[in-house]
Design brief:
Elements: E1 2-5, E2 17-21, E3 24-28, H1 39-44, E4 56-58, H2 64-67, H3 70-75, E5 81-85, H4 86-116, H5 128-135, E6 138-142, E7 147-149, E8 154-160, E9 168-176, E10 179-185, E11 208-212, H6 223-240, E12 244-247, H7 253-266, E13 276-278, H8 281-292, H9 299-306, E14 317-319, H10 323-328, E15 337-340, H11 350-357, E16 364-367, H12 376-381, E17 386-389, E18 392-395, E19 399-402, H13 412-420, E20 427-431, H14 438-448, E21 453-454, E22 461-463
Parallel strand pairs: 3-4, 4-5, 5-6, 10-11, 11-20, 12-15, 12-16, 13-14, 13-15, 16-19, 20-21
Antiparallel strand pairs: 1-2, 1-22, 2-3, 7-8, 8-9, 9-10, 17-18
Bound molecules: zinc ion.
Length: 466
Amino acid sequence: MRLSFHGAAQGVTGSCHLLECAGLRILIDCGLFQGRRHADEDNSDDFGFKPSEIDFLLLTHAHLDHCGRIPLLVKRGFKGEIITTAATRELAKLIMMDSAHIQEEDTAHASRRLRRQGRAGIEPLYDVSDALRALDYFGRNVSYDEALALNEQVSACFINAGHILGSASIVIEASENGQNRRIVFSGDLGNYGHAVLSDPAPPPDADYVVMETTYGDRLHRSLEASVAELIDAIKQTQAGGGNIIIPTFALERTQEILFHLKDAIKRGELSSSLPVFLDSPMAISATEIFRRHAEGFRPELCNEMRAGRDPFNVPGLRFTRQVAESIAIDNISSGAIIMAGSGMCTGGRIRYHLKHNIWRSECSVVFVGFAAEGTLARKIIDGAKVIRLYGEDVRVKARIHTINGFSAHADQRELLDWLGHTGKPKTTFLVHGDKNKGMQTMLGELKKRDIAAYSPALHETVDLFA
Ligand SMILES: [Zn+2]
């Protein structure tokens, strides 16, 4: 029985782990490497195994860094079955199709430039037809807590990870030559007390654990304080006669913000006539998928939804899919909340709304998520006085709010609590974290508690019977 790490090893993105047991080759996630210096090379490199030899791909959730290389896996010969929850299946389709469009556009752009220089063009990592073909390999949908036999000796059980809709940790039980092993893959773990999603389910005792460490070095601010900060920013801006611009992440954060807006209206803190624009076709599609999958919500919210009370249905909410509708929003000079992607302002419609509003001192830009180094969002958060948009220098005069308490990831204390349920694993493999930050700190914390832990290198293999 062997476990090897082909992504998110001593790094955050590209999650991909291979478990070989009882005659099966089981892949857990197949994500895209993102944001790092050699991400393109990493993505097009060999997987570290033969895709045609994989029997099952178990997908923990639909974030791009967990599902983004599935179309490439299929393109390179995968013929197995992809198993995941019903919500993840729908969200993964949305994410993979979007990624394929971006791959096609980016390479077409780069190829034109290369050809102008008399050089050969480049091929996308995968295209829309590859992503569509990947959908054919999605087989059984699983429900939480339901053990699924992969063969006579191996079973898999998905338990709720509370991270995004449909997200799961995966528990694999395998027996080989009369010896049994239980291995728990955390996937990405959510934070407790999320407004919409259930808390992560406690994992069972395990022989081995593979755990994410994204925020292994941090404790989150309280959610209540963050919600209060968001509502205050909206009220102040409305009173001053400006618009509120919120760069959004299509999956999860958008729906969470809609929930808090509706809740504030219900409590009488915000007016029910507040115009809210969700100007992101992908976020609109994701919101529709949320509405179809209340099974991942906290129980009281799930009951509300099933009784016909939609928690995302803000009274003044308008969905704008068409470009013309999006452009028309900028005729509104005050009182509107405009949510658009991308969350880090690296592309998408948000840049257009920033151009029209960020130079006005009566407006606000409210950041509700992570902003990586080098992105436009990071520059604005760090206090840039002028930003470049559509070839123009635009002054930053709007009030900038950075609200840090909304998070889809467990913090250090929550990770330790979660791991505490697994008893005393022989080894906890730490993955999906910054090598020098979250992962390093978590290694130290586990050492203090006398818990055996280890951060495997990329493509490293370990023997689980050793
Ligand atoms: Zn994730």
